[in-house]
Structure formats: C-alpha cells, structure tokens
UniProtKB/TrEMBL annotation:
<protein>
    <submittedName>
        <fullName>TrmB family transcriptional regulator</fullName>
    </submittedName>
</protein>
<dbReference type="InterPro" id="IPR036390">
    <property type="entry name" value="WH_DNA-bd_sf"/>
</dbReference>
<dbReference type="InterPro" id="IPR036388">
    <property type="entry name" value="WH-like_DNA-bd_sf"/>
</dbReference>
<dbReference type="InterPro" id="IPR051797">
    <property type="entry name" value="TrmB-like"/>
</dbReference>
<dbReference type="InterPro" id="IPR002831">
    <property type="entry name" value="Tscrpt_reg_TrmB_N"/>
</dbReference>
<feature type="domain" description="Transcription regulator TrmB N-terminal">
    <location>
        <begin position="10"/>
        <end position="75"/>
    </location>
</feature>
<dbReference type="Pfam" id="PF01978">
    <property type="entry name" value="TrmB"/>
</dbReference>
<feature type="domain" description="Transcription regulator TrmB C-terminal">
    <location>
        <begin position="113"/>
        <end position="223"/>
    </location>
</feature>
<dbReference type="Pfam" id="PF11495">
    <property type="entry name" value="Regulator_TrmB"/>
</dbReference>
<dbReference type="InterPro" id="IPR021586">
    <property type="entry name" value="Tscrpt_reg_TrmB_C"/>
</dbReference>
Length: 261
C-alpha cells in the first residue's frame, strides 16, 4: 500500500488523493461521507481532494447520484497521464529554450578523484573532432585505444614530452627535447586541448592528483600556447647546437627549478 501511494505521489497525486484513489479502486463507488469515515479523515479534506481529483480526471462522478465517485480505470488514467506528461515536456523544453540566456558562463570543474580524471580524459578524446594537443609524462598506454579511435575518426593527435615517448604504433606526432626515454616513474602533468574548445590540466604531486576541466577560451589559449612553445623549443634545440639552452636562459627561479638541459 505504502509503495503504491509513493508511486502515485511521484506522478502528481497528493498523499490524500493517492489514498482516496486506491480506496475507490478497492471499495468501488463512494461519496465523501463514506470516504471520510473509511479513511478517518475530515470531511473538508476529503471533499476538497475529491474536487481536485475530479478536475484532474483521476475519478469519475456517477450520474444521478448523491455526489458519488468512482476511480477511473488505471490503464486509461495512466495512458492520459503519460500523454500529458510527454506533451508538457515538449512544450516546456521549447518554452525554456526561448528564455535561455545565449551568453553562458564558462565552466571550470575541479577534479580530484583519479577515476573521474581518467573518465573525463577519455570523454574529451572520445568527443574530439579535429585536433588534440597533449603535453604529458604519463604513460599513454592507458588511453591508447581512445587515441586510436580518435585517430581513426580523422583527429590529428600531437604530443609533447621532455623525454622520448613511444607512439604505440599509432599515427601520433610526438615531439621531445631529451634523447632519454620516458620512464613514467614519477609522472607529474597532463595538459590537453581538444578542438580548441576544451582543456584538461592534471597535476600530480606525490600521491595527490588533481585537475581542472574547462571550456574557458583564455585558459585554452594559454595551454595551447604552452604546448606549442614546448614543441618549438624542442625543434629549435635539435636544429641548432648543444648550447642552445644556455644561450636562451634569462636566469630566473623558474629556470633553476624546471629547465631541462
């Protein structure tokens, strides 16, 4: 009984209306006086609920009776409820679209769970259409199939790592600065841009991993420029001489901590 009442409430009945409807199904036709006595509720509550239920088409008024009601056939009733719900949903969707503000704020999602980060990364790759830029020292084997599917769809994948990465037999354009092969022992970053409209940045310090996922265009441009600059620097270092790094340094704290010779 309680389960049925709760289900009726979920489709628009009040609790009292749900109890009255079930009672009418059980005992057949009844007037307000009998229902009030049967359910031990006030007559005013019963009469008010009956009027609402009759207006909504949940119950039928028996002709030539002293205000006796009966429950509408459940199959017929819920066919009508389903039809009205569907029509109202379509109309509501259309009407809400008319008042929706076309200028939306950018989203910034903070991610701290490893599985959520991995799921977000895979989802971005899955929905990419043209280009993916990657700067990472994480092992790409974990997303090999996702990258393969993207490449098979015609997506261009460009990856940078300071040390050498394996292309895993895929058509990935890989750039690196060091001749040493990446060991993946202490991965620290993922910077990704897809189609110049989505960006994911992940950092790992010790055992703590966190990330930001955004469609903010300024942020996306910054990450894209960063990845491109790393690739340009790597290519210039290969074209010119071994002392390239020393010639371009500007002696900052950032260089002392991060510059890879």
């Amino acid at each position: 009984m309680e389960k049925i009442v709760n289900r009726l409430i979920k489709v628009g009945f009040s609790k009292t209306e749900a109890i009255i409807y079930i009672t009418l199904l059980r005992i057949g036709k009844a007037n307000g006086y009998r229902l009030a006595k049967e359910l031990e509720l006030s007559k005013s509550t019963i009469y008010q609920s009956l009027e609402t239920m009759y207006r909504n088409g949940y119950i039928l008024l028996i002709p030539n009776s002293s205000k006796e009601y009966e429950a509408k056939n459940p199959e017929l009733l819920f066919e009508e409820i389903e039809r009205l719900f569907f029509e109202n949903s379509l109309n509501l969707k259309r009407d809400l679209k008319k008042i929706e503000n076309p200028i939306k704020e950018n989203y910034f999602y903070k991610l701290e769970d490893n599985e959520k980060i991995k799921a977000t990364l895979k989802n971005i790759i899955k929905n990419s259409k043209k280009e993916i830029y990657l700067n990472t020292d994480f092992d790409l084997q974990e997303i090999r199939e996702d990258l393969k599917n993207a490449i098979d769809r015609g997506v261009r994948v460009i990856a940078f790592c300071f040390n050498k990465l394996d292309n895993m037999g895929l058509r990935i354009e890989i750039y690196h600065k060091s001749k040493e092969k990446e060991s993946f022992k202490n991965p620290s970053r993922i910077m990704l841009v897809a189609d110049l409209n989505k960006s994911l940045v992940v950092t790992k310090v010790g055992d703590k991993i966190s990330g930001f996922y955004t469609d903010n265009q300024v942020f996306i441009n910054i990450i894209s420029e960063h990845i491109h600059s790393d690739i340009y620097m790597a290519k210039l270092a290969q074209i010119y001489e071994e002392t390239f790094n020393e010639k371009i340094k500007i002696d900052t704290l950032h260089e002392k901590r991060n510059f890879i010779v």
